[in-house]
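Q: Could you fold this chain for me?
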Amino acid sequence: MKVCWRVCYLQWWDLSLSLSLSLSLSLFLFPPSLFPLSLSLLLSLSLSLSLSLSLSLSLSLSLSLSLSLSLSAGWNMPGSLSFNVGTAGAKVFSEPSVEEFGYTVQQLKNHQGKWLLVGSPWSGYNQDRKGDVYKCEIRGASSGCQRLNLQNSVSISTVSNVNVNMSLGLTLTRTATEDMFMACGPLWAQKCGSQYYYPGICAEVSPLFNPLSSFSPALQTCGGPMDIAIVLDGSNSIYPWPPVVAFLKKLLENLDIGPDNTQVSIIQYAVDPDFEFYLNSYKTKDSIIAAAANIPQKLGLQTNTFRAIEFARRQAFLPTNGARPGASKVMVVVTDGESHDNGLKDDVIGKCEQEKITRFGIAVLGYYIRNDIDTKNLIAEMKSIASTPTDRYFFNVSAEEALLEIAGTLGDRIFNIEGTGKGGDFQMEMSQVGFSAHQTNKQNMMMLGAVGAYGWSGTVVHYTPQKSDIFPKTAFENILEDRNHSSLLGYSVTTLNDGSTEYYVAGAPRSNHTGQVIVYIINSKGQPTVIDSQKGDQIGSYYGSVLCPLDVDKDGVSDILLVGAPMFMNEQKKETGKVYLLSFTKGILSDQGILRGPSPADNARFGMSISAVPDLNMDGYSDVVVGAPLEDNNRGVIYVFNGDKKKLRTQCSQRILGSKLDPALKYFGRSLDANSDLNDDTIPDVSVGAYGKVVQLWSRGLAVVTARATFNPDKVNILSKTCRVSGRLVSCFNTTVCFSATFRPKIPVGPVALRYNLTLDADLQSSRVTSRGQFSNSERVLQKDIRVSTRELCDAYEVFSLISKRLYSESTTNDYVRSPPSHRKTQPFFQPKRGVTKSRNIDKINH
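A: Sure. Below is the predicted structure, expressed as structure tokens.
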């Protein structure tokens, strides 16, 4: 690349002398380590240039110095616009794509080495899709990774675990202990009888890659301890009896039988009621099912249903018969006919209400249908027995054989009594805690997103090993405006810091359909207080699905919150995606524009992943990497954006195409992490997830090269001819060109090898076809190879002026030319586009 600095002095008269110095530099580097590193070049130019020609007439001096720089590096990056991240020598790890290997990626350093942790949430595909996490050794020669086999160890011992389809590895996050990490399986389920709940599960993993104790803050209690009395009609009209026994067996199979969970007693009645067994007669499911299978029919000519219900109320729930304090009381009444003691109904049912006994009523209509009897009165009586609402607690079946069909539903509704508050809306049963996670500044406190809570309105859980604060639906209900129960609050979580207060931030990408970001603190009562919120501006854009806080100047105060809306659709109906910049002051978010991303002609999902980087280009400011996994026909692209004081430059400094690294890459940029230095050069490196692959990119060191030119004498009298060229006396002067380099990081990877050209009259005008100066080699061009380090290296040259007498034969009153300034400030060289030679005027000053 060529870049020119020019110092130009305007002519005062029609006579002028133009001397120009052009330097063309080529850069190549020598990597000292195993890793394919290359330096990027920053160039600054300092000139001390004062040249004056004393003449007998007044003329002007137009003196220009142009410096052109061309770069070439053996490890240059195809498709790169700048120098922050290298691509040559990128390491690609591969595992089965059907397992969604690469969905998440996280860098880790421990006593064993440096690793990439890669989430594979569908690990076990075609069988159980439990999910898992892989570790990939950075320094290893292999491009494969080792599965940690966490899926069978992440469980809760006190409940019935369902690890199938739990998507372990969907979430990976750092913990307060830097050599550990946490993995979550938000679709982990627990089984309560035949009911499945999805509270989610997480576990910290030790430095030895062993899972520590697992936790599930929204763990369900399977309805809590429950004592159930089944009051079963065994009168003569019940026929046949085996379907009734089959019903009992299937119902019991669907219950979570155990001393600490559900206990069941069975009372059979006709004229009089009797116990078949008590609540404490059997401790296991198998034993109680075996006992039920051998129950004979009692038989009798009367159906005294309310006498049996009263008997169950008074006897079944006694402590001596196995009832437990605090256990929910449930009664299931099954009969095929109207009672002969209906006069007891109001008193008996009233006492059941007082003692909070939940009642299910099941009317078997077989006898009535077989004998063509109107079922209206039977149904009305059984509805009066059942708790309200009757549509949940009353059943009727056409025959004894049909009892089997309702057994499963009855079991589910029994469990639902405690699980969701007697048939109300879902609370935390389907919460999927761990869908997102973030370690706060508080040592032991982790934010966990629970997108499925409260009918998928979502919430946030603040977890510590001592307790879990699960915020109720009312905490965010007003701000979400969640009419359709689908905000998905907790899809992303993070924190912001103003130096004294930590603010909690949660994304709700479907809130009000456009998405929303909510900022809150915890008040003195331990509940959230919403401070501010920002809404998206397009329906379905998934605004808030990705959050990334950034402390640009590293002063401990959050400067920017980046908010991804990866499904934002442009006017061409392409899902380009969008990343919003929000400034942050005392909990208040303010719009600061957007990042400039992909072409509007492409589907890209720009902002699907965003990662803060401590400092890529070593300028003291934090940077950002953004993924666009659908760009370039689903091959994927990542973008690098550099920090600047307290802001982020909206134009990317680098764009890296996955297809240039590996033509087989797909969805490159679906996940990102750039928190750590993985090759010991003190610069953070970038890890990129793709479909079935993870790519490790190595960041480049920087060489800041300073060029300086001086002239002696600083005034040249062109009438004084002290030098001889080809037997002819001419004016002359000396110029010295100096180079030095500083390195970022300070430990250099080697000297910078430069080739420079010095050219006199580099900018020859069309009216002038010959140079007016030459070097000692009788040419206007010199070329030299040098090696520049931190110590300044200088070369001196003698320049001969070939100005003829004709130039100053016309005199005026002045006899000298004013000198230009004696020095120039150092100018930085902006990011070059590699592999291209092109001049650019960076700085132009006219006097």
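A (continued): The two ends are 28 Å apart (CA to CA).
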